[in-house]
Amino acid sequence: MARRPPKPSEDDRRLWKRVTRTVTPKTPVKPDYIAPDAVEAALAEMTAMLGEPDTETKPAKTRAPRKKAVKTAAVTSASAGESIMAVMPVASRPLPRAKAERPAPEIIEPNRKKRLSRERDPIEARIDLHGFGRFEAEDELRAFLMSCQARGMRSVLVITGQGRQGGGVIRSSFEEWMASPYLRLIVSGYSIAHQRHGGNGAFYVTLRQR
């Protein structure tokens, strides 16, 4: 338990009385009267300065119509310290254009075919595909035409054979090979050869310049 303070002695009491006689009590000051209207006016002024909405005059919430989403970029205001959403236009990138393909080889024009048949335009090389399977013949033909183009040749002869009753596999596949994307880069035209060069079992082939 805490000890009780000792009782003041007679000397302490006399000294305290002398001190209290020299002290003059302060006269109480009556506070100024403030009208209630002034208090409300001050509160209203403070509310206007702070920008706080009045709870009594707050408008009723209405559901805004949904708008289409727009790509935005966030911009931070250093002075206000707030995050602002600013609408930024998004530039659309143009789609890459597809590489233009070479047109499919065309039928050689009659005048040039006549010159080839008479060898006024020289036939600079020839290949015979007899004895090859379909896939082997295609590989041989592609390698032959690529080599001829690399050497600067313009006209060659391709012998396919007619097969039985004109339905040979290589003969029937020739036009499909000519329309392939790879050979379009090499071949400019083709036509059935003259009888002296093989007739329906052979083709004149003209090559593109590199």
Topology:
Blueprint: H1 10-22, H2 36-50, E1 72-77, E2 82-87, E3 106-107, H3 110-117, E4 125-128, H4 134-150, E5 155-159, H5 169-178, H6 181-184, E6 187-192, E7 202-207
Parallel strand pairs: 3-6, 4-5
Antiparallel strand pairs: 1-2, 5-7, 6-7
Q: How would you summarize what this structure contains?
A:
By secondary structure, this protein is an alpha/beta fold. The protein has helices spanning 10-22, 36-50, 110-117, 134-150, 169-178, 181-184; strands at residues 72-77, 82-87, 106-107, 125-128, 155-159, 187-192, 202-207.
Described by the principal axes of the CA atoms, the overall outline is rod-shaped
Oligomer: single chain
Mean pLDDT: 76
Enumerate the strands of the largest sheet in spatial order, edge to edge or round the barrel: 3-6-7-5-4
Tell me the helix content.
Answer: 25-40%
Number of helices: 6
Per DSSP, what share of the residues sits in E-state strands of 2 or more residues? 15-25%
The arrangement of helices and strands along the chain is HHEEEHEHEHHEE
Tell me the number of strands. 7
Which runs of at least 5 residues are low in confidence (pLDDT < 50)?
A: 70-88
Measured on Cα atoms, how large is the radius of gyration? Answer: 53 Å
> Between the first and last Cα atoms, what is the distance in angstroms?
116 Å
Return the structural class: alpha/beta
- Biggest sheet character: 5 strands, mixed
